[in-house]
Inverse folding.
């Protein structure tokens, strides 16, 4: 039944049939009529086999083909063999699809498969719970017709899915969802939704705890510092307790500085609605920063300032000043006396660039990625000696985030570091000053 196709066998059968018709024609003396009748009979037989094949393919429910004979035996057997292969392939695909769906149902997140037009192709059960979908009734529906939120619609139209979208849950009031969209297969998208309500609550509790503790510590630290100052003023010049009181005063001052920076960090983190419509005069700010740098340098460093005239920022002046001041003070603290620090504010193609460059000892590559973490220090001992708290760059990171920017760090051991950030062009106002000489904006201070 499963003999393979043989062209030689078909030709030989046809030759034997025609030879038989020719022989019969010669016997009866009617060669042409016998050949004509044989051809007609052959056509009728082939038409009969074709009708059997057509009935089996379209009407017969049996899997096995009819018993073919002659040249049609290979056709029936070949079709049956192809059907067997297709059934096996369909079974394998069904098994893989079942495994995929089992895995998708086991995900801790809602998963939705979309086509290129954002129509729903499939979703797991958690998507039905978190997003309110009804399956399979919602199959083929546009997802923005089911999740009716202007932020979500804008997120889909923008087609920039690098950053997740946080959205209020359409099902549970007070719950927050984090939605991510990524490419999936050819012309498809995979939407992942996760309930981050608990994470946001923990972050809020942490911020509130830090803010409350920092606020509560201010009063006892102020009292301690006041009594220490009074005890120092009353102590005899040759008293052995003077050194101990000086160390206590230093540590109290350091703790107070840390508390103030924690409070500043909490305020910046909570300032998600920072107004970016107030213009900040960078020339005045750079003058203030220059005076602070001179006081900190104490004539032991070569400090150069450059401020491009007429280049101002729209944003929060206190936060921007805190960012710039932190970068400048870090450069001076972590550069040996006699070193050089270059501070510049200039216009570039994509906005305004503020940079602080020093020729200090530099930072090893493994530390650069963690510098903006709270309380992270490359050298804890030196940070304590210089009065560092490990919070300055964390404050810088959050303040820059509020101004659509981020901190860039480039450093080489033994060659120095460059800390910079770019304020985007939409927050920049530039007024060219043709008559001003560049020397008015460029100062080198010893």
């Amino acid at each position: 039944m499963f003999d393979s196709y043989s062209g030689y066998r078909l030709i030989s059968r046809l030759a034997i049939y025609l030879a038989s018709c020719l022989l019969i024609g010669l016997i009866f003396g009617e060669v042409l009529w016998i050949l004509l009748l044989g051809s007609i009979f052959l056509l009728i037989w082939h038409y009969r086999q074709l009708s059997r094949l057509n009935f089996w393919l379209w009407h017969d429910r049996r899997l096995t083909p009819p018993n073919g004979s002659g040249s049609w035996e290979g056709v029936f057997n070949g079709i049956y063999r192809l059907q067997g292969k297709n059934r096996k392939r369909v079974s394998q695909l069904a098994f893989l699809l079942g495994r995929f769906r089992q895995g998708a149902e086991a995900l801790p997140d809602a998963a939705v498969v979309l086509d290129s037009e954002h129509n729903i192709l499939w979703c797991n059960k958690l998507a039905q719970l978190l997003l309110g979908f009804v399956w399979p009734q919602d199959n083929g529906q546009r997802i923005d017709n089911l999740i009716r939120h202007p932020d979500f619609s804008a997120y889909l139209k923008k087609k920039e899915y690098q950053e997740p979208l946080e959205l209020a849950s359409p099902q549970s009031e007070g719950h927050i969802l984090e939605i991510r969209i990524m490419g999936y297969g050819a012309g498809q998208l995979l939407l992942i939704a996760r309930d981050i309500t608990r994470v946001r609550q923990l972050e809020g509790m942490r911020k509130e705890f830090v803010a409350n503790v920092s606020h509560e510590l201010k009063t006892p630290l102020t009292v301690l510092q006041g009594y220490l100052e009074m005890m120092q003023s009353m102590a005899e010049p040759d008293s052995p307790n003077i050194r101990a009181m000086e160390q206590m005063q230093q540590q109290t001052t350091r703790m107070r500085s840390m508390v103030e920076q924690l409070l500043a960090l909490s305020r910046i983190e909570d300032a998600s609605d920072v107004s970016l419509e107030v213009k900040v005069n960078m020339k005045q700010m750079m003058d203030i920063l220059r005076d602070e740098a001179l006081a900190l340098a104490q004539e032991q460093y070569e400090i150069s300032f450059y401020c491009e005239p007429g280049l101002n920022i729209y944003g929060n002046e206190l936060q921007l000043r805190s960012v710039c001041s932190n970068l400048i003070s870090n450069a001076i603290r972590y550069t040996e006396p006699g070193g050089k620090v270059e501070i510049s504010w200039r216009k570039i193609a994509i906005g305004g660039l503020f940079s602080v460059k020093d020729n200090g000892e530099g930072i090893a590559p493994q530390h650069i990625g963690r510098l903006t973490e709270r309380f992270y220090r490359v050298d804890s001992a030196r940070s304590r000696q210089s009065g560092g708290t490990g919070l300055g760059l964390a404050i810088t990171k959050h303040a820059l985030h509020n101004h659509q920017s981020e901190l860039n760090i480039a450093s080489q051991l033994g060659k120095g570091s460059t800390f910079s950030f770019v304020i985007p062009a939409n927050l920049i106002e530039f007024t060219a000053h043709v008559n001003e000489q560049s020397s008015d904006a460029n100062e080198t201070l010893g």
Observations:
- Confidence is low (pLDDT under 50) at residues 434-441.
